[in-house]
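Hey, I'm writing a tutorial for new members on how sequence and structure tokens pair up, and I'd like a real worked example in the thread rather than a made-up one. If someone can provide the structure for the chain below, I'll link this post from the tutorial.
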Amino acid sequence: MLLATLRTLFARDLDKLQQEIEAYETEEALWRTAPGISNSAGNLCLHLIGNLNTYIGAELGRTGYVRNRELEFSLRDVPRAELVASVEATRAVVEAALARLSEEQLHQQYPVVVFESEMTTGYFLVHLATHLAYHLGQINYHRRLVGA
């Protein structure tokens, strides 16, 4: 039950992330920041791609992905088409990795310690889904703020 829910939520929110990135009026607006806002939507998108490819793709799906977290926040002016393609690829990686999991595996320990203590795979996947939703909300707000 939880696994089916997680698969639905990740698919829905990654589709929404793609829609948000495509909805920016200009590519320049994707990379704009405002006073008090340190991350652009482009950087938040790169961060979500890196996060999901690391913790779901590499750890659970064994994709071999190697993360460069610093670049997620320092790269600028990545073309919108490249961001969209990366979101689509991430959606496929997440779906494939989750399709291979069983409900029983959700109760097992996640393969690496992330937050200074062990946690179950199910707990961490819920965290990752809420992390995605949190930044998706920021991107939506950012798009409306810089487009105003």
